[in-house]
Amino acid sequence: METILNRIIEEKRKEVIRLKECSQILQNLETDKRSLIQKLQNAKDIAIIAEFKRASPSKGIINNQLEPVEQAIVYEKNGASAISVLTDQSFFQGSFSDLRAVRQAVTVPVLCKDFIIDPIQIDCAASSGADLILLIAAVLEEDELLMLYQYAKSKGLEVLIEVHDYKELEKVGKTGAKLVGVNNRDLTSFHVSLDVTEKLAEAVKSTGAFLISESGIHLQKDVERVKKAGADGILVGEALMKSSDLSRTMQNFRLAQTTEGKL
Ligand SMILES: O=C(O)c1ccccc1NCC(=O)[C@H](O)[C@H](O)COP(=O)(O)O
Q: Among 119, 218, 225, 250, who pairs with 78 as Cys (CB 3.0-4.6 Å)?
C-alpha cells in the first residue's frame, strides 16, 4: 500500500544520494553538545520539547508566518527543555538552516526531527549543531536502528527513538536507548490517540528509559493524562505553532497536575 510514510522514505533515499554527493562541503558548526538526558534527570516537572513545524502531511500548512529563531527564543523563555526542529523540506517545509539558526539562538538542546535512514543524515544533523536526533523504529529494521543509534552516539549525539506499538518497542531493546518517544500519531493512518502512550508507558518505563509522549497534545488535560501514564516529557508541535498566547499555553502545560494532585 502506498502511504505518505512510504513516499517520505522514497524521498529520503533520493536526499541521501544528494547529501553523499556534496558531503565534503558540510560546514561544521562547532558546538559543545547539550544533554536532554541530563535535563530530564534533574527535572522536577514534565519536560516540554517544543517543536518548530511549519507544515505536515496530516495538517497541511500549520503556520508558515513564524520565524524559527524568534519562535525558539519564546519557547526557551517559557521553559522548553529542548527545541525540536523539523528539517525535512518536502513534506514539512523545514531545513537544516532552520536547525542551525535555532541552535545558535538558544541554550537548550536542539533535536533534529527528520526521517533518518542513513549515517550521512546524522553527519548533516551533527554539522548543523543538533544535540540529539530522532530515529523512527517504524521505518528501520532492528539492525539498521542499532547501527544508526551507535553511529549517532559515536558523534556525541543523544538519540530519541520513536515507537508506536510493542513490536517497534522490541526493536529498541539492543540499543539500550535512554530516550524513548511514544508517538500518539499512527504515521500511516494519521490517527492520533493518547491511548497509545497509556498503552505503552509501562513497557517503556520498564526499560529504564525516559518516556516522551509525542503528538496530539493540545490541552492541559492532555498533559495531565500522559503525565499520569508516566511520561517524563512531551513533544508538542501544532498546539504551540498555532497558539496565540504561547506563554499561557506553555505555562498551562507546565502546571498540569496528575489526579493525585502531585506537580
Ligand atoms: O505530523 C504529521 O502529519 C506527520 C506525518 C507523517 C510523519 C510524521 C508526522 N509528524 C511528526 C511528528 O511526530 C510530530 O511533528 C510531533 O510529534 C508533534 O506532533 P503535534 O504536536 O501533533 O504537531
A: 250
pLDDT tens per residue, range 209-247: 999 999 999 999 999 999 999 999 999 999 999 999 999
Report the distance separating Cα 135 and Cα 139, nearest Å: 9
The residue whose CA is least distant from atom 7 of ligand 1 is 187
Domains of the chain, first to last: 4-22+36-254 (3.20.20.70)
Nearest to 226 by CA among 248, 250, 258: 258
CA 98 – CA 123 distance, rounded (Å): 16
Q: In this predicted model, what pLDDT tens digit does every residue of 126-183 receive, in sequence order? A: 999 999 999 999 999 999 999 999 999 999 999 999 999 999 999 999 999 999 999 9
Q: Extract the C-alpha cell encoding 210.
A: 525516559
Q: Are strands 55-56 and 60-61 parallel, antiparallel or unpaired?
A: antiparallel
Instruction: Give the binding-site residues of ligand 1, using a 6 Å CB cut-off.
Output: 4-5, 51, 53, 56-59, 183, 185, 187, 190, 214-217, 235-239
Q: How many CB atoms lie within 10 A of CB 97?
A: 12
Residues in Cβ contact with 129 at an 8 Å cutoff, skipping those fewer than 6 apart: 29, 31, 99, 100, 103, 104, 110
